[in-house]
Design a protein that fits this description.
Layout (H helix, E strand, L loop, with lengths): L9 E4 L4 E6 L14 E6 L4 E7 L11 E6 L5 E6 L7 E6 L6 E5 L10
Antiparallel strand pairs: 1-2, 2-3, 3-4, 5-6, 6-7, 7-8
Length: 116
């Protein structure tokens, strides 16, 4: 299997044996490739890319660096950290079942926070 254009920053396997690859699209932590940040789902049984969720410049603006991904226990949400210019307090929450529904949420170091 070949995954073109992927800069693998984080990988994880979900409870359905699907591999998820997080691509920040910022080679060497430099400027982000436009339309590049993405989350890809790969079926390990068939070795095929099932889905690619692209993050817009609104969700992952220039200077972002998406660096880790975890999933909710039910697999409906992906929680992605952004350690770019916004700092380590930024998270992306992606509704995996609805690729167009994204929101960013800030958290203070104490863990409380609000949406932006």
């Amino acid at each position: 299997m070949q995954v073109f254009g992927a800069l693998v920053q984080a990988i994880t396997v979900d409870n359905q044996n699907h591999l998820w690859i997080l691509d920040p699209a910022a080679p060497a932590n430099a400027f982000e490739i436009p339309s590049g940040p993405k989350l890809m789902e790969i079926n390990l049984a068939t070795n095929t890319v099932m889905r690619t969720i692209l993050f817009s410049m609104v969700v992952a603006p220039q200077g972002s660096y998406l660096n880790d991904v975890r999933f909710s226990p039910d697999g409906q949400y992906a929680y992605i950290t952004d350690s770019g210019i916004r700092g380590p307090s930024w998270w992306l929450i992606c509704a995996v079942g609805q690729p167009a529904a994204f929101s960013t949420v800030t958290h203070t170091r104490s863990g409380s926070g609000g949406s932006s």
